[in-house]
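Ticket #4471: structure export looks truncated?
Reporter: QA, pipeline team
Priority: medium

Steps to reproduce: submit the single chain below to the structure queue and open the exported record.
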Amino acid sequence: MKKRGRKKLKDLHQFCITGSGKQGDYELKGKIWIEGKEGTFLGYGRIALLEKIKQYGSISKAAKALNMSYRQAWRLINSMNRQAGTPFVETQVGGQSGGGTKITEAAEKAIEQFLRIQEDFKKFLEEGIKNFRI
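Actual output as written to the record:
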């Protein structure tokens, strides 16, 4: 009997780990996230969710693409919106155009900054492993 349900995707957390690249037998790894007043504000998974919402114009399609429940996606969106003080995600209900979801300019800016920080972190790890000697 064939199992139903979502296709099993690779663990999203493995993608948020940044590595330095091998230096001999070793590699320096780490992951970053931005803490807010409620805990995690931005991290790789939240950025991926925002990018998928931008791509699909739909929370449910974005959640499905990330193998995430719609409820979990909404929980993350609400957390980001509250902590940012300005909405990152806006929804439009029904009407002639059928409604939809979009990310705001504030979200675009946050994505850009987070990805820049992540790139700087990767460079930091690459430099750090160069100096590792036992």
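Status: closed, not a bug. The export was complete when the record was re-opened. Leaving a note from the reviewer for reference: Residues 42-125 form a domain with the Arc Repressor Mutant, subunit A fold (CATH 1.10.10.10).
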